[in-house]
Amino acid sequence: PGSIAYTFDYGTQREDLSEFHGASFFVKDGVTHKRIEITKERFYWALDEVIRLKQMPAVPHEAAIYLACLEAKKDGVDHLATGVGADGRFGGFSHFYKDRTVAGFKENLHKQFVSPQKVLVDPVNVDWVFEKYMEAGKINVQRFLLEVGTEGTAVTDVIRCSGLDAVNPYTELRYAKVLADGSQAKGFIKSAFDRVYPGQKPNKKYALPVPYGAW
Q1: Please, are residues 66 and 39 in contact by the beta-carbon 8 Å criterion?
Q2: First and final C-alpha spacing in the chain
Q3: What pLDDT does residue 182 have?
Q4: Are 210 and 43 spatial neighbours (Cβ–Cβ below 8 Å)?
Q5: HSE on the CB side for 208, CA within 13 Å?
Q6: Phi then psi for 134, rounded to 5 degrees?
């Protein structure tokens, strides 16, 4: 109670993915729910600002988070809590579990990110990194995501660059069972949801929506 929940809204550009509408069902009494309106112009302005502040490339959704940070600072907020880390800790990124051999894991990783072998002039083989996460002949995906991740500290970085303290409680947690299938931990997540919101159904899960196609 007394806190503020910030939710993205892309207006008419992505009405089908209005997070504000979906989140409104779950905001508790005593919490102010604020809409962060994001237009194409604001998004690209924010992306330039994030790259300037960080002095490095940005993960695409950092621009949206930066706009939320600016609004939070206007409201006098100094700590911003996020759900960052939940996917990596509790069976998200299910595509990484489909083939946990080194070859299969690398292939899935390079579908999402650029293979360094293709862009560096004199690349060094880094397969030893994958070998470090082998257990019984398979990659332990959870441990890889816990220690290496896929986007590094991107969200935390942009929050700190904005002058706020990032609070990411899910990064402090770890599901102790080794997952061979990303869906295994979902029962745990569902039971937790049912305890907090009895009788409710969770919204369909989407990746953080940004209307790149339309823009």
Answers
A1: no
A2: 37
A3: 67
A4: yes
A5: 14
A6: -80, 135
Task: Return the ∠ at Cα 67 (arms to 66 and 72), rounded to 5°.
Answer: 95
Q: Note the Cα 28 to chain centre separation in Å.
A: 23
pTM, full prediction: 0.82
Q: How many helices (H) and strands (E) does the chain have?
A: 10, 6
- Looking up tokens 């599901």 gives 175
Contacts of 76 (CB under 8 A, 6+ apart): none
- Report helix, strand or coil for 134: strand
Identify the bridge partners of residue 135 per DSSP, sorted by sequence position.
138
List C-alpha distances in Å: 171 to 82, 89, 155: 10, 7, 12
List per-block mean pLDDT (blocks of 10 residues) for the chain, which spans 215 residues.
Answer: 92 73 87 93 95 89 94 96 84 86 90 83 89 92 84 87 93 79 73 89 75 79
